[in-house]
């Protein structure tokens, strides 16, 4: 797949905090671009690259940056997929975190129209999406991966073919086990430090200089320290991912004891009405006390 005059058209569906910067990187790399978003205003920055309805897309490769496959199924039922196929769509790439079973079901449905499904869930958060440094875990047949890989590398620094469709999603759930567990550990450390009379800012500085340093600590410590949970990744999506992870564990006989406790804490944050806030809001469940919490409202469409 080549960039420049002969580059295939790429469509991005879903222009939230991840999808919009991904689309910008794809355009900068020289791929002709189309975009669609449920809230049309989000597509306005892309000018005439926006389409009014998903069925209007005419792209060789369609990337779904929607929250899950459920939302993709809603906007791309069989008649829409049939129209895409008629306009030359050959590949659909799922960038969201979902379940391996959902990926395989989607692959079966779209395969009836000759559209090949790849799963390439993203890790790196909205900051990684803006910087073009995401990590992608890909599930695909080798020949499909070879065709789509140049598009993926236009917005990601690490791209790994993990196995057949569904394997990328399984790898992303492993990633989410670490992210969620580390985020809870950071929240617990800050809570314990504050109860011990320590400065939270000073504690975070010293943690960053030792073995406790992590990308999660760097990205989320300030949100926890200031209890300001403007969106990166949302609490509701973190709960979704952990439910998928524990569901996969149940199917495979894995215990995941720490992850199950982590999931319970995030679900408590959800019950506290923090689902639309950044997943660092799990701190409110960890500290289990009242107080004023600031966020940014519902997740972007």
UniProtKB/TrEMBL annotation:
Keyword Ligase in record: no
GO molecular function: NAD binding; NADP binding; oxidoreductase activity
Residues annotated as catalytic: 172
Record's keyword annotation contains NAD: yes
Key words of the record: NAD, Oxidoreductase
Positions of the 6-phosphogluconate dehydrogenase NADP-binding domain: 9-163
Residue span, 3-hydroxyisobutyrate dehydrogenase-like NAD-binding domain: 166-285
Cited Gene3D superfamilies: N-(1-d-carboxylethyl)-l-norvaline Dehydrogenase, domain 2, NAD(P)-binding Rossmann-like Domain
Family: Belongs to the HIBADH-related family.
The protein's name in its UniProt record: NAD(P)-dependent oxidoreductase
Species annotation: Streptomyces malaysiensis subsp. samsunensis
